[in-house]
Hints:
alpha+beta, 9-stranded mixed sheet, elongated
Amino acid sequence: MERLQKVMAHAGVASRRKCEEIIKAGRVKVNGQLVDQLGVKVSPSDQVEVDGVPIYREEPRYFLFYKPRNVLSAVSDDKGRPVVNDYFEMIDERIYPVGRLDFDTTGLLLMTNDGEFANRMTHPSHQIDKEYIAKIEGIPSPEDLKRLAKGVVVDGKKTSRARSRLVKSNPNNQTAVVSLTIHEGWNHQVKKMFQAIGYPVVRLKRERVAFLNLGQLKPGEYRELTAFEVDKLNKMATDE
């Protein structure tokens, strides 16, 4: 027996917290009976409906995907642009991206059908590190990098403390490669942070999420996470 909101989250309805709101709003039935209170547990044989539609209770799946450049972090696109789910056509479960990477940003993107897991990985309160490698115009000084580390103002809000380091620089064409590790995930955050200190981003790649990296994967390839990796990620989020 599992809590109703957890079952809904695993089915991809929404995050666990959002599922709790859906239950309290009276939008859920279990075996035909309205449920609007939290704490209800259901078994695999129970039929759960949300807004009159039965949920498909899938086994949770977790993938590490190397997102290529110029691919949307979405399950579909009404303009016909390539999306990350195009690379998972052989997967039966209804997976979706955990958070997002910009259309022109490459790198590590988690994919799952577990809404609770997705919420844990993306909510800033859990402080899951995300490391980005940015090629920028100009060569930042140590003082510039300290500004990034202390936090800069983006869209009227100051970013949290981060870690930054100069990976390499090219004085001939006045460009540099910088590593930036953050735990937030605001819209275009990394690009805006570099813009705030006067160094536009030319190219951006997410190298790492928590302890996970791309390993030997090439753009467009993926692998399934091990049970140990999933448990470790969940524990990291819970311990924060």
